[in-house]
Amino acid sequence: MLNYTDILVGNYDRMLRGTPTVTFDYLVKQLPTATAFINKKYEVVYVSDRWINDFDFTRKEVIGRTLKDVFGEVTREWEKVLKDCLKGISHEVSLHQHTDEFGNHRWFEWTNTPWYDEKENIIGVILQTEDVTYRIRTEIQAKKLENLLDSKSEITNIGSWEYDVERKHLTWCEITKKLHEVVPTYEPNIDTAINFYKEGYSRNAIALAVDKAIQDGVPYEVNCQIITAKGNEITVITTGKPIFKKGKLIGLIGTFRDITPSLEHEKKAKRQERHFKSIFNSSYQFTGILDTQGTFLEINETALTFSGLKEEDVIGKKFWDAYWWPIPDYVKDGLKQVVKTAAEGEFMRSEIVVLDKDKNPIPVDFSIKPIYDENKKIFSLLAEGRMIKEMVAARRKLKESEQKFRALYELSPISYILSDFDTGEILDFNTSFEQTTGYTRKSLGSLKVQDILVTGSKTQLLRIRKEIESNQAFGPEEQQYIKKDGTKFPVLVSGSLVGNKKGRKLLWSTAQDISESKQSEARLREEKKLLRTLIDNLPLNVFIKDLESNKVLVNKAELDYVGLKEEDVIGKNDYDFYDEESAEISRKEDLEVMRSRKPMLRKETISVKKDGSMTSFLTSKIPLMDEEKKVKGLIGISLDISDLKQKEEELHDLINVTSVQNKKLVNFAHIVSHNLRSHTANFSMLLDFLVSETDVEEKNRIIKMLMEASDNLLETLENLNEVVAISTNINLDKKPVNLYEKIRAVEQNLTAYLKNNNALIINDVDEDLMIKAVPAYAESILMNFITNAIKYKNPMRKPVVRLSAERKDEYTVLSIKDNGLGIDLKEHGEKLFGMYKTFHKNPEARGIGLYITKNQVEAMNGKITVESAVGKGTTFKIFFNEQN
Amino acid sequence: MSKIKSVCIIDDDPITVFGIKKMLSMLDLAEDIKTYVNGKEAIDDISKMVDSGETIPQVIFLDINMPIMDGWQFLEKFLDLNVEGKVRINIVTSSIDAYDRQQWERFKGLTSHLIDFKNKPIRKNDILEITRVA
């Protein structure tokens, strides 16, 4: 039995093989698929409304009509298929185009199957069709798109993909597969495709985008990373676009583009740009890039800082409009021309002056250089400026110094000669050379160094040559030049070698005419000699000392004085010649003179040499100044005044002697007056008494006293006479006297006296000792001392007088030693040798002996000393002067 | 005028001593006259008197130039003695040496004793004048 289910599933065989009923007709009519039942005569028996609609046969009656009537024609192929069907042979689905009555082409998938009755007899053919026009059309479109994409992707390396929503089928083109690094046979599906996207942002983004595209039909373009089958990470841009059919989404198509290389390229470009910028901006030079029309494309910070401008003030402006040109129009035109020329491929360079931000003109070394692209086409210009303030200043200086040199060269009193070192040819000389030699510049070209040089020995010339070759210079040394007129003159020559560009060795020589200096040198020598002679013959010691008091110059007198040769004195100081003290004093004087700059004049100094000899000088020290009035030492002049000094001392001595004598005389006068007065006073008094005396006895006594006084007066006069005799005969002739013999003689004379006193004389004097003395005085002196010694003997002892003598300096000293009473020298020392001074209670003491003795010794330039101890004895020492 | 108890003459010249003594006795001025031939003897004796509490001479005639101890040396020592009352000392000399006058001036300033200076010869009038108790 036929049921609805069979119909629904298209089990028409069973359905139709049943008994045809009215309901069958009705059922077919409602079939969801386009179906038509054809009998063996190819007449339409049953038909579904869908079929009528699909073929647009609504306005046609089809039931009962043949296929030929309905479709206009039945192709031979179709007829064959139909016939096969009637024979029970089924055919596969086939595609057919149908053109409707309005000329619209429609595509149908067409299935022909045999129509069996209940007895399995074929009674017709069942036609089933499906209108696939849209599908076909979409496929064609997709095919076209695919082709298009394929051809494009071959150039741009853009892959494509498509997704059939109905079939859930994803396809990748070859490039897409290549980009995913999968094998060409790889079949992706939507899940595996998504898994290629990098986990995280990329995968989420793409899933969301695809979902949105499928759900809402929104196209997308996503920039994200994928990890390829081989594990490489690439950055891609993937796009997707939904495709609709009759408002219904049927699929997605999209592209897949690897942008990793371009990203890297971009990074690299950015890095390079950064590098370029930093170099460009930090350059010391002003740098700008212009297009070929002279418009600023770039300018570096150095230039901006220099000009005080901002980038936007400059970029886009014309090069010649930049404010820093101190510009009149013609300069502008010049700059335009420069830019133009550079744009044509020339490298332009010149020095110009520009203004800095404070409008100061600054010299700049400026250049414009064309820049070529890879096709050797000029696409921009590089403008550079370098501040050359220093260079310009240096050049100006160079110029100045060159001018100076020129002036010097021409005006110098020294001759300059430029010659070829190898040939000796003279190439140039200055005015001074002309004036001194008489040659003029006309002779240049023919004149050689050999012509003007008095040839010395060959060895000399060779030596100079060698010196030049090793030192590139020679001199200064003396040579002789010959003037044009043949006269010779001495010159001081020095030279130095310079090379010129062609490798020629040139010799610059300077020659100074020293004829005059030679003469003045001689004059100077003469003067020096004269001066030397003068100071050497001065009866003065002359020396010059430097700041350290070292002797720089000494004259002959000074040398004679120190007893050394000049070379042993120069450079030495006073410490080397004199004892420490003298040297110290002298150094102090030197320092004071040099410090105060005031001369020390005629100062009496004493120099003690190392050997102890002493010399008195009258010394002057005068500070010595150099040309800048700075003290550089001192000049010393000493006059040996030792002789004068000695004379002065002698004079002094003489004065002393004289004053002593004088004193003595005054003293003597007093003595005389005192003594005479005392006697005369006595006379006067006694006479007074006598006149008024009446008593005879008393008178006689007074007369006796007068006679005594008279005797005393007489004696006094005699004594005085004696003293006067000694004092007036100061220059008595002294003779050699044998002291021993003299003592013997005195002893002889005193024999009786000595015997009476039981006295002993011991004569210890050397028998050969001679003294210089006035013989009479010597005798008197001996007599006096010996008798004194006995006169003042110690009553408890036998008087012993011992005489001995010794030499001491210029004296012979006679010692007379007794063992007598002794004298209290403290009490009486002063008066011991005074006149009429007595010290013992001895009635014989007259107070005249020692006084006379002293006078006699002094008259012979001697002296007397005394040592004594009371109760023990006295020793007198008589100094006989052996010299005068 | 009352007599002076004790006068002393120090001089080595016997004539001078004789003269002064004679004049003193002629004028009857002194009860006792002592004489010494030099300063030493005089000072020794006077020192003894001072020590034993005896009355020392009220007037002294003093010569300068004497042996052993001269007048100045004597004066030096005398002024050191612890003497009660004023003594009149008459220096009698024939010296005209300025030095001696200077010495006199010096000694005058050193003591409260009265010191006088007279050149020889001495006359009776002088004696009368200078032989008074100081």
Unreliable stretches of chain B (pLDDT < 50, length at least 5) are none
Which term fits the overall shape of chain A? elongated
- Our Rg estimate of chain B from Cα atoms comes to 14 Å
Counting DSSP H or I runs of 4 or more residues, the number of helices of chain A is 29
Distance separating the two termini of chain B: 14 Å
How far apart, in Å, are the first and last alpha carbons of chain A?
205 Å
Spatial ordering of strands, largest sheet of chain A: 2-1-5-4-3
The radius of gyration of chain A is: 80 Å
Assign the CATH class of the largest domain in chain A: Alpha Beta
Q: Roughly what fraction of the amino acids of chain A lie in strands?
A: 25-35%
* Global structural class of chain A: alpha+beta
Description:
The complex is a heterodimer of chains A (884) and B (134). With 884 residues, chain A is α+β, with helices and mostly antiparallel strands. Chain A folds into 7 domains: 4-131, Beta-Lactamase; 136-258, Beta-Lactamase (2-Layer Sandwich), CATH 3.30.450.20; 278-393, Beta-Lactamase (2-Layer Sandwich); 412-513, PAS domain (Beta-Lactamase); 527-636, 2-Layer Sandwich (Beta-Lactamase), CATH 3.30.450; 647-708; 729-881, Heat Shock Protein 90. Chain A has a 5-stranded antiparallel sheet with strand order 2-1-5-4-3. In chain A, strand 13 (348-355) and strand 14 (361-372) form a beta hairpin. The longest helix of chain A is centred in the last third of the chain and has 51 residues, at 642-692. The radius of gyration of chain A is 80 Å and the shape is elongated. The model of chain A is unreliable at 1-5 and 14-20 (pLDDT under 50). Chain B is α/β, with parallel strands linked by helices and 134 residues long. In chain B, helix 2 (39-52) runs parallel beside helix 3 (71-80). Chain B is 43% helix and 22% strand. Chain B contains 5 helices and 5 strands. Chain B has a single domain (4-130), classed as 3-Layer(aba) Sandwich (Rossmann fold). Chain B has a 5-stranded parallel sheet with strand order 2-1-3-4-5, with helices on both faces. Chain B has helices spanning 14-27, 39-52, 71-80, 98-110, 124-130, and strands at residues 4-10, 30-36, 59-62, 88-93, 114-119. The interface between A and B is medium-sized, with 26 and 22 residues.
